[in-house]
Amino acid sequence: MDNNEAEAKVAALERILERERLARKEAEKQLEDYTRELYQQEEAVNHTQQEVASQQGQLEFLTGLLAETWRQPNLQKIVANYLERTNNFMSNAHNLFVEIHADLSFHQFQYYCQASKQQSEILPEQYKVVLSQLNRNKLYQYVSSESESQMYELGEISKAPNTNFEYSVMVPLYNLDVPSGKAVGIAILLYESQDDINIVKLQTLESSRSMLAVAIERKRAEEALQERLVELETSNKMLEQTQQQLLQQEKLASLGQLAAGVAHEINNPIGFVLSNLDTMRDYFSDFSEIIAPLNNAELNSESKVDNMLSQWQTLDGDFLLSDSEEILVASVQGLIRVKDIVSDLSTFSRMDNDELDSIDLNVVIEKSLNVVSNEFKYHHQVVKDLLPEANILGNAGKLQQVFINLFVNAKHAMPEGGTLTISSKKDRNKIVVTVKDEGHGIDPSHLADIFTPFFTTKAPGEGTGLGLAISYSILQQHNAKVTVNSELGVGTEFEIAFFESL
Amino acid sequence: MKGAIFNALQEFVEQGHGYQVWDDALTNNTLASHGIYTSTKQYDDSELFAIVGYLSERLEVPVSDLVRAFGVFLFPRLMPQAPEEAQKAPSLRAFLMTVDELIHVEVKKLYKDAQLPEFNYDDHIDDKLTMIYRSPRKLCFLSEGLILGAADHFKETVSISQNCCMHQGAECCEIEVTFNG
Ligand code: HEM
Q1: What is the pLDDT of residues B151-167, one digit of tens each?
Q2: If A190 and its partner were Cys, which of A154, A165, A255, B129 is the partner (CB 3.0–4.6 Å)?
């Protein structure tokens, strides 16, 4: 190996070595960069982890508080829950709650103390001291004017120095109107030292306040609503009762009206039949006197006749005879009227609610039409436009009486002939039946009276004037509403609205 | 191209032809890296091609043969870095199927800047497997060498041919591997 060759080898080796060295440095630098990067990343990860943990803690506090707040039955429980939650969340603060009224009196103490994490009934001495030393005036002024939490050095808000606690945070929770004026709920956080204060957590606490305020507002509204609901229910019940009573009274009233009318109407004929009979008794003694000679044994036949004749003349026998006949005819008529009224009344008797069954109105209408079909046979037409199904709560027999009465009236209103139209339709929970004629109509001045007992425009002897009154009474007992539309010369329409049965 | 590939190439040249050849290859080329290669760093492809071009001339071996031989040398150095699932492949054929969708995918995860080829497979014939190679670096011969290296690893014998090649102006290289057992 010559020198040149050796030198070249050495030079090559040196270069290779130099490259190797540089490559190693490069690699080491890279390693250092990586290590630093790794460390920074780890730092960043740790930081994010802490951030996430604290945010999670805050979130948990907020969502937990939210969920539980809605579940509380009343304001007091909401506050208790708030204190418990806050106590767990703010691990370094002592949590008190107090309600202060406009007269600066304290109410509703509640507290959570950090040491035991347990609430007890007795207020520990150290809290009592704080509360008793608080400058209530200042506190009330602040919470009733500010809506944000406020941190105080305890000395600022107390009348005397306190050795246990250094700082306090006043958290206004609610502001209510109470009978004595105003009531403000305040959570008081007490800190033994400044180092215990965690600003981030305080901010979270602050952001929970608005939600709490909404919840409290809602709870109060709910309570008020509940009260209103109960009130409404009672007044509704009362209304129902009154309505029931009114209906009952109305029924009684229409019955009473009927009874009074009946008494009057029967009294009249009976009165004159009685006075007729009185007259007839006088006439009877006159007749007895006239025929008295018949039984006189001392007189012969001829003188008996003479005597009777002269008596006839003296007592005006002709008049007695004709008047007697008139009196008897009138009396019979009077008694027939009484008999009619009584027979009309006998079909009408008071009906109780439990006599109401679910019945098919169509069947009732058909049956009623059958009864009067003869009346409409020659000069009248009957048109029906009925619902396929019409079930109502009612008494079939009584309603049949009503419809027969209406149909007969319709026929009487149309002596020359015409069309009777019976139709039914549904109107929400009601079934409305219309009975319409093309008769002479009802005079507007009579319209108000048509349901009054014994009101009739028919000639004496043609009707008792009881038909519509009885019908009306029956319909009232069905709680059915009757409306009458009538136009003179055009016709009359009765509209009856029944409650549908389900 | 990764520094690790250059490091392997250096080893390959030094073992076969001595360190002076490697030093000459570096000193006779103007290289941006000055021939200093750190395994994890990325270097310009042109440096590899310049070195290989010099070596081909100096050693009077066609570039294709040189690169193929380097592939055979390189494979056992890459294999330990492959994912376990690929290493445990039951056969060469099964292993080759993992290159595109497993091995190189994992490489890409480890080195964001890695430049890897794309392989498609035609395996419809039992004893053949065509790996369709696409890469702007046109290193199909490296693939051939790696496949041969892999065959050694799995103790199988194969014959390799290319039906078409990017070096002949084709759009891709079709590397047909025939398994001879
Ligand atoms: C027979 C199996 C394999 C074949 C055919 C193959 C093919 C290739 C080819 C041709 C390249 C050059 C880049 C290009 O052409 O664009 C390459 C690069 C590479 N391959 Fe593979 N490979 C195989 C197995 C492996 C294995 C087992 C590993 C191990 C993890 C691996 C890791 C790499 C790496 C790190 C690069 C360099 C990437 C860069 O330079 O950025 N390969 N491979």
Answers
A1: 999 999 999 999 999 99
A2: A165
Cα–chain center distance at B74: 7
A23 contacts in chain B (CB < 8 Å): 3, 36-38
Which chain B residues are Cβ-neighbours of A12 within 8 angstroms?
19-20, 23-24
Class of domain A353-502: alpha beta
Domain ranges, residue B13:
3-61
pLDDT of residue A347: 57
Domain match, B101 and B140 both: yes
Question: Do B95 and B144 belong to one domain?
Answer: yes
In-domain check, residue B145: yes
C-alpha–C-alpha distance, residues A71 and A21, integer Å: 73
Name the one residue in this structure whose structure tokens are 């021939």. B35
pLDDT digits (tens, 9 = 90+) for B56-70: 999 999 999 999 999
The answer to whether B81 contacts chain A (CB < 8 Å) is no
- Contact of A263 with chain B, judged by CB distance below 8 Å, is answered with no
**Number of domains observed in the structure of chain B:** 2
Mention every residue, 6+ apart, whose C-beta is less than 8 A from residue A383: A419, A420, A421, A422
Residues 22-41 of B with CB under 8 A from A: 22-24, 26-27, 34-41
Assess whether B123 and B50 both reside in one domain.
Answer: no
pLDDT value of position A482: 87
The residue contributing the CA closest to ligand 1 atom 5 is B143
A8 contacts on B by Cβ (under 8 Å): 20
Atom of ligand 1 nearest to the CA of B82: 30
The ipTM estimated for the assembled molecules is: 0.80
Which residues have C-beta atoms less than 6 Å from ligand 1? B 1-2, 5, 78-79, 81-82, 96, 99, 103-104, 107, 114-117, 135, 137, 139, 142-143, 146-147, 150
Top mutation candidate among B103, B121, B141 for ligand 1, by most atoms within 8 Å of CB:
B103
Ranges of chain A with pLDDT below 50: 117
Of A83, A99, A31, A104, the closest CA to residue A190 belongs to A83
Answer whether A72-197 and A353-502 agree in fold. no
Cα A366 to Cα A304: distance, rounded to the nearest angstrom: 71
Same domain, B13 and B93: no
Q: Is B135 within a domain?
A: yes
Q: Where are chain A's structural domains?
A: 1-63, 72-197, 353-502
CB-based contact A353:A388 (threshold 8 Å): no
Ligand 1 atom 7, closest CA: B143
* Interface membership of A217 toward B (CB under 8 Å): no
Flag whether the pTM goes above 0.80.
no
Report pLDDT for A345: 65
B36/A23 touch (CB, cutoff 8 Å), yes or no = yes
Q: Are residues B175 and B98 in the same domain?
A: yes
CA gap B54, B46 in Å, rounded: 12
Q: What is the CATH number of domain A72-197?
A: 3.30.450
B39 contacts on A by Cβ (under 8 Å) = 27
Quick one: pLDDT at residue A468? 79
DSSP string, A287-324: HHHHHGGGG-TTS-HHHHHHHHHHHHHHHTHHHHHHHH
B15 vs A: CB within 8 A: no
Chain centre to alpha carbon of residue A94:
50
* B50 and B97 belong to one structural domain: no
